Amino acid sequence: MPATKTTARGRVRDETKRAAILSAALQIVETDGLGKLSMEGIANRAGVSKVTVYRWWSHPGEVLVDSLLNVVEPSLAWQDTGDFVHDWGRQLNAVVRFLNGPHGAVARAVMGAAQADEGVREAYLTRFHQPRRVDIKAHVDEAIRTGQLDPETDSDTLIDLVYGALYYRLLIGHLPLTQRRTRQILTTALQGAVSRQ
């Protein structure tokens, strides 16, 4: 049964409100800090009721993580050319651009808050981290299956080596997070893993 004009207008209004809520969450953290983020504050900034925010989210951390996903997810997608090392390097460059970009500070704040706030941690793990990791692991496992990586490679350990080094530099800040240094991380992690066949 085709949607009525009223239903269509309702969907447009909902999407407009949802976009305003996601934008509001980012704005609050970027201007006032993560400590100021609340469901009431998000609702006020977005110009909607608190009930409307709770229709889609149960914790401000969920709103914030979804707001990050909304702006960065398309740019972080894996582009598969069949050359695993090249593709992973390109995906890592996209991650670096994101972390060094206008929303990188928000990502750092979320990862830091996840250590003490269970709601933020759960939102980050289930909405951001785990879906990304599942996707990357599938590409690593495929590279092992097709002989681009050594069959003895443990995909979980390899992923931790690469992203662990990247996020360590992001959070500690002892070395700059650049594409050149990220290539060095990937090259070092892949030593012994790239198939010599």
Architecture overview:
With 197 residues, this protein is mainly alpha-helical. Helix content is 74%, strand content 0%. It is built from nine helices and no strands. The longest helix is centred in the N-terminal third of the chain and has 28 residues, at 5-32. The model has no long low-confidence stretch (mean pLDDT 90).
Q: What is the CA-CA span between the terminal residues?
A: 57 Å
Please, how many helices?
Answer: 9
Major β-sheet annotation: none
| Order of helical and strand elements | HHHHHHHHH
Low-confidence segments, given as residue ranges, are: none
Task: Please write out the topology.
Blueprint: H1 5-32, H2 39-46, H3 50-56, H4 60-76, H5 84-100, H6 104-113, H7 118-145, H8 155-172, H9 179-190
Helix pairs in contact: 1-2, 1-4, 2-3, 4-7, 5-9, 8-9
What are the main properties of this structure?
74% helix, 9 helices, elongated, mainly alpha, 197 residues
Concise summary:
This protein has helices at 5-32, 39-46, 50-56, 60-76, 84-100, 104-113, 118-145, 155-172, 179-190. It has 197 residues and is an all-alpha fold. It is elongated and about 55 Å long.
